[in-house]
Amino acid sequence: MAVHERSRQLQQRAEKLFPGGVNSPVRGFRSVGGEPPFVARAEGAYLYDADGNRYIDYFGSWGPMILGHAFPPVVEAIERAARNSASFGASTGAEGDLGELVQACYPGIEKMRFVSSGTEATMSAIRVARAATGRKRIIKFEGCYHGHSDGLLVKAGSGVATLGIPGSAGVPEEVASLTLALPFNDLDAVVEAFEQYPGEIAAVILEPVVGNAGCIPPGEGYLDGLRKLTSRHGALFIVDEVMTGFRLALGGVIELYGIDADLVTLGKIIGGGLPCGLFGGKREFMDLLAPLGPVYQAGTLSGNPLAMAAGIATVGYLREHAVEVYPKLEETSKAVAEGVAAEAANAGIAIMTNRVGAMWTWFFGDSAVTNYSEAARSDTAAFAAFHRSMLESGVWLPPSQFEAAFLGTAHGQVEIEATIAAARAAFAAVTA
Ligand SMILES: *Cc1c(COP(=O)(O)O)cnc(C)c1O
To answer: Tens digits of per-residue pLDDT, 250-266?
Structure first.
C-alpha cells in the first residue's frame, strides 16, 4: 500500500480552511470515496503527490494539459512573460497574437473577447444572445455543464451531477425559470420548446460532445438540426467548446462535425493551464459589446499576459504539429479506452465505452448512453471501486462517473500498458 501521510496532513489543514477541504467540489473525491492525494508537481503524463507517489494522469487539469505537464515550450513562455510583469491592465500585442491563432483554428470566430474562465465565457455569451434578440429564455441540455453562473446551473453536469444536486441553492426561481433544460440528443424536445415559447428563446447552448455527464457524442444530424431550428426561430446557437476546443480537433467540434455557430466559447486548453477563456463568433453579435455597443462585460485580468503566453505556446504548438498530434491522440486514446474495455469484458463486467478522440468515459452498465438520464443509470458504486483500485495502482482517473477522461501527447505505449494492467487487476479484484 502506498503511503499517504503527507496528503492526509494537508487534507486536515485544508478542511479547516476550505469548505469540504477544496476550492472546486469534484476534487474532494466525495462520489468515489478514498482520500484525494495532494499534488506536489507534475511532468509529462505523470502527477506526483506530496508523499512522492506517482500517477498516470487521466484528467489533465480537466483538459488544459493536452501537451503534458510542464511542457518545456509552455514553461519557457510563461517564464519569459513573467519577467516583463504579470499584469498591466492595458492592451498587449500578445492578445492579438493569440486572437489570430484562435481565428486560424476557428475561422467562424470573426470577433472575440478574452475572459479568465469558461464560466465567464458562457455567461457573457448568453448576455450577448439576450441583447441581440431582446428575449429572455435559454435552452440548455440535461447533464451539460457551462460553468457555475446562476442561469446555467439548472440540471447541470460535472460536480452538480456528481453530487446529485438538481440545481443549486442560492439561485432564485425567477432566474432558473428562464432556463429550459431539455434531454440531449432529442430534437423533438427542442421543436416543442420553440412552439411552447414562440419569440421568447434567445439561445440554445450546448456541449457539442458532452463531457460533463461523462462522454456523450451527438447523434447523427443532431447538431445540424439544432442549427436549423435556432436559425428558423431567430435564436442564437451557442456552441460551448470549453472542453472540446483544440482537443477533439484543432478547430474543435465545429471543425470535426462542420457546424456553423453564432457564438463559440473556449477555455481550458486555450490558456495552457493558466486561467483563460474566450467567447466569440459573428461580428454582428460581438460588436454589441461595450465600448462599441450596449452589452457590458469586463475583466481586470482579461487577456492576462501570462495566460496569453501559455495559450500562444500551447495553441501555437497544436497548430504547428496538428498533423502528428491529433492522429497520435486518437491512437493512444483508442488503445487505452478499448484496452481497458477488453479487460472488463474478459472479467465479465459490463461497461459501455463512449469515446470521441482524446475524450472518453467507461460507463458501468450494459446499455447505450446517449443522454444524461441514461448516464445516471450507471453503477456508480462499481465505478467508485474501480477508481480506488486504479488510483492505488498509480492511475488517476477523473473521480466521478460523470466526468470524461482525457489524455495528452505525453501519454504513450508505456502508459497504455500500465493502465491496462492496472485495470486487469482492478476488475480481477472486483470479481474475486
Ligand atoms: C469546464 C467547463 C466550463 C467552465 O469552465 P471554468 O473555467 O471551470 O469556469 C464551461 N463549459 C464547459 C463545457 C466546461 O467543460
So the answer is: 999 999 999 999 999 99
